From TrEMBL:
<dbReference type="GO" id="GO:0000160">
    <property type="term" value="P:phosphorelay signal transduction system"/>
</dbReference>
<keyword id="KW-0805">Transcription regulation</keyword>
<dbReference type="Pfam" id="PF17853">
    <property type="entry name" value="GGDEF_2"/>
</dbReference>
<dbReference type="Pfam" id="PF00072">
    <property type="entry name" value="Response_reg"/>
</dbReference>
<keyword id="KW-0597">Phosphoprotein</keyword>
<dbReference type="InterPro" id="IPR018060">
    <property type="entry name" value="HTH_AraC"/>
</dbReference>
<dbReference type="InterPro" id="IPR041522">
    <property type="entry name" value="CdaR_GGDEF"/>
</dbReference>
<dbReference type="Pfam" id="PF12833">
    <property type="entry name" value="HTH_18"/>
</dbReference>
<dbReference type="GO" id="GO:0043565">
    <property type="term" value="F:sequence-specific DNA binding"/>
</dbReference>
<dbReference type="InterPro" id="IPR001789">
    <property type="entry name" value="Sig_transdc_resp-reg_receiver"/>
</dbReference>
<feature type="domain" description="Response regulatory">
    <location>
        <begin position="4"/>
        <end position="122"/>
    </location>
</feature>
<dbReference type="InterPro" id="IPR009057">
    <property type="entry name" value="Homeodomain-like_sf"/>
</dbReference>
<dbReference type="InterPro" id="IPR018062">
    <property type="entry name" value="HTH_AraC-typ_CS"/>
</dbReference>
<feature type="domain" description="HTH araC/xylS-type">
    <location>
        <begin position="422"/>
        <end position="520"/>
    </location>
</feature>
<dbReference type="InterPro" id="IPR011006">
    <property type="entry name" value="CheY-like_superfamily"/>
</dbReference>
<keyword id="KW-0238">DNA-binding</keyword>
<protein>
    <submittedName>
        <fullName>Response regulator</fullName>
    </submittedName>
</protein>
Length: 523
C-alpha cells in the first residue's frame, strides 16, 4: 500500500527543489500528493485526500507551519509531521515536540538527512499498519462472529467462553457500544459503479479503524447493515472523542457519519444492553438529525396531528402558495411535521405526505391545476422520499418543492391575469362611445365587480374608472387635432354625453379646456 506525502513551503524555489528531491529519491511506495505554497492550500489538499506524512516549513506568512500543523492534526490525528526551518530555535523545537513531530530538519536540508528521515518515517508507518492489522486479527473471525451474533440476540444470554474471554479486558475498565452509520449511503451507492462503491467502503472502514486506533478508543469491527461497531474503552463519558471522529470524517469524506452510543458497562449483560441502547439511539436519527453522537432516548415521545388540524393546515398552505407567501408555507410545514404530541415516526411522516399531496391536488383541481403535472412529479418521486434519513432532510426537500409550486402558480396566474386585463381593455375601447361600467364588464367576463376592480388595479396601477377616463381623454386629444370635428361631436364619440361634463373632465386631466387646448396648439 502506498504512502502519501504533502510538501508545504511558501518559497516557490525551495518547494520545487524539495519536490524534485523527494520524487527522485528511492522511496518505495512514497507518492507526493501535493506541493502547497501556504497552510491554507495544504489544508484544502488534506480535505481532498488522506495524507500519511507532511514536510512543512515553519516560518510562513499568515499561517505559520506550527498553526498549520495543529489544524492538520485536527483533520487527520494520525498524520506524521516533519518540520523544516532555517533557524535552530529552541522554542520551535519545543512546540514541535508538543505536536508530536517526527523530526525537525534545518535548512539547507542535507540529502542524507532527508533520506534518513523519509526512509525511517516510511518504515514506521508500514510497521504501524502491520501492527493495526495484527491487532485486528487478534480477534479471530470466529470470535467476532460469535460476538456479533450475541449482540443480535433478543435477550442477554450468557456469552460463550471465547466471547467472554475477549470481553473481559474491555469490561475491566468499562466499555460502551458505539454503532457508527455512514449517512445517505443509499443515495450515494446508487450513483456509483460497484467497484467504486467497494473501494469507497474500504476507505471508510480503514479511516475509522485508523482513527479509533490512533485515539486509543477501543476495539473496532464491522457490524450489520453497513454499520460499524466500536467498543469504546476510553474514558469518554461525554462522547468528546466520538465528536472528534465525526469532525475528522466530515473533513475527509463528502458525506457524514452518525454514531449511536450506549451506556458504559462493566458486565457482559450490561454491554449487551449497551448495544441495544446504541441501536435505539441510531433509530431516532430520523428525528434528531445526522452528523452527531446520539444517546439512547427511549422516553422520547412521538405524535401525529389530528385530521382536523391537517385539513386546516393544508388549506392554509394552499392559500399561502396561491399568494406566494413563503413564510406561511414554511410555518404550515413545521406545524404539520412537528405537532404538539411530539415529532412523527417515519411511517407517520410518509402517511402524512400522502394526505398532504392528495389534499393539495384536490384543491388545485378546483382551480383547473394539476399538482403532479406542475411539479413534474414522476413515478420515482415517492421512492425518492424513502431515501431521506432524517425528518429535517425530508421537510427540507418538501419545502423546496412547495416553494417551487408556489412560484409556478403565481407566475402562471400573473400571465393569465395579464391576458384577462388585455381582453378587458380591448372590450372597453371597442365600447368607448357607450356607457361602460365596472359592473357591466364584470358581468361580461363572469367576475364579481369587487374582484375584477381589485385585479384591474393590481395589474394597471389605476382604478377602473380612472383608467377609462384616461383612455377617453387620450382619444379626445387625438380627435381635437382634427379641426373639422366639433367639440360636442368629440365629447359624444368618447362616451361623454354631456359636453359640460366633458369640458370639466378634460380640464381636470390636461389643465385646460378642449377649446384652450386647440387655441394653444393653433388648431
Amino acid at each position: 500500500m502506498e504512502i502519501t506525502i504533502l510538501l508545504v513551503d511558501d518559497e516557490a524555489i525551495d518547494l520545487e527543489w524539495l519536490q524534485v528531491r523527494v520524487e527522485s529519491g528511492n522511496y518505495d511506495g512514497l507518492r507526493v500528493v501535493g506541493a502547497a505554497k501556504s497552510g491554507f492550500a495544504a489544508l484544502a489538499a488534506m480535505e481532498r485526500e488522506r495524507i500519511d506524512m507532511i514536510l512543512t516549513d515553519i516560518r510562513m506568512p499568515i499561517m505559520s507551519g506550527m498553526e498549520f500543523a495543529r489544524k492538520a492534526k485536527e483533520i487527520q490525528p494520525d498524520v506524521r509531521i516533519v518540520f523544516i526551518s532555517g533557524h535552530d530555535d529552541f522554542q520551535y523545537a519545543k512546540e514541535a515536540i508538543q505536536l508530536h513531530a517526527y523530526d525537525y530538519l534545518l535548512k539547507p536540508v542535507d540529502d542524507d538527512d532527508l533520506e534518513k528521515t523519509l526512509t525511517g518515517l516510511c518504515a514506521k508507518i508500514r510497521e504501524e499498519r502491520r501492527s493495526r492489522s495484527a491487532a485486528s486479527e487478534a480477534l479471530p473471525y470466529v470470535k467476532r462472529e460469535l460476538l456479533l451474533r450475541w449482540f443480535r440476540e433478543a435477550s442477554p444470554n450468557s456469552a460463550e467462553d471465547r466471547v467472554s474471554e475477549f470481553l473481559a479486558p474491555c469490561l475491566r475498565e468499562g466499555a460502551a457500544v458505539a454503532l457508527i452509520e455512514p449517512d445517505d449511503r443509499e443515495r450515494l451507492a446508487k450513483e456509483m459503479p460497484l467497484e467504486e462503491r467497494r473501494a469507497l467502503w474500504a476507505r471508510v472502514e480503514s479511516f475509522l479503524a485508523d482513527f479509533a486506533q490512533s485515539e486509543g478508543l477501543g476495539e473496532f469491527m464491522n457490524g450489520f447493515n453497513d454499520r460499524f461497531i466500536l467498543l469504546v474503552t476510553a474514558a469518554d463519558e461525554a462522547g468528546a472523542s466520538l465528536d472528534k471522529m465525526i469532525f475528522a470524517f466530515r473533513k475527509a469524506f463528502p458525506f457524514t457519519i452518525t454514531i449511536g452510543l450506549g451506556d458504559r458497562a462493566y458486565r457482559a449483560e450490561d454491554l449487551h444492553a449497551s448495544y441495544r441502547q446504541a441501536e435505539t439511539a441510531l433509530s431516532i436519527k430520523w428525528l434528531v438529525g445526522k452528523d452527531r453522537v446520539i444517546r439512547d432516548a427511549s422516553s422520547r415521545t412521538t405524535g401525529k396531528p389530528a385530521a382536523a388540524d391537517t385539513e386546516r393546515l393544508v388549506q392554509a398552505m394552499l392559500q399561502a402558495m396561491l399568494e406566494y407567501d413563503l413564510v406561511k408555507i414554511d410555518d404550515c410545514l413545521q406545524a404539520l411535521f412537528s405537532p404538539d404530541g411530539g415529532p412523527l415516526r417515519k411511517s407517520e411522516a410518509y402517511d402524512l405526505i400522502v394526505r398532504i399531496t392528495s389534499k393539495l391536488h384536490g384543491g388545485l383541481q378546483l382551480l383547473n391545476e394539476n399538482l403532479y403535472e406542475l411539479l413534474n412529479w414522476e413515478a420515482q418521486e415517492p421512492v425518492l422520499l424513502f431515501e431521506f434519513e432524517t425528518m429535517a432532510d425530508l421537510v427540507s426537500w418538501l419545502r423546496r418543492r412547495f416553494f417551487e409550486l408556489s412560484e409556478l402558480l403565481i407566475t402562471k396566474r400573473r400571465k393569465q391575469d395579464r391576458k384577462l386585463i388585455a381582453a378587458i381593455i380591448g372590450y372597453m375601447e371597442e365600447r368607448l362611445a357607450h356607457k361602460v361600467t365596472l359592473r357591466e364588464v364584470a358581468t361580461h367576463f363572469d367576475f364579481t365587480p369587487n374582484y375584477l376592480g381589485y385585479l384591474f388595479k393590481e395589474e394597471t396601477g389605476m382604478t377602473f374608472s380612472d383608467y377609462i377616463n384616461d383612455v377617453r381623454i387620450k382619444k379626445a386629444r387625438v380627435m381635437l387635432d382634427d379641426p373639422l370635428m366639433k367639440i360636442y361631436e368629440i365629447s359624444d364619440k368618447v362616451g361623454y354625453n354631456n359636453v359640460i361634463y366633458f369640458n370639466r373632465m378634460f380640464k381636470q386631466a390636461m389643465g385646460m379646456t378642449p377649446g384652450e387646448y386647440r387655441k394653444k396648439n393653433k388648431i
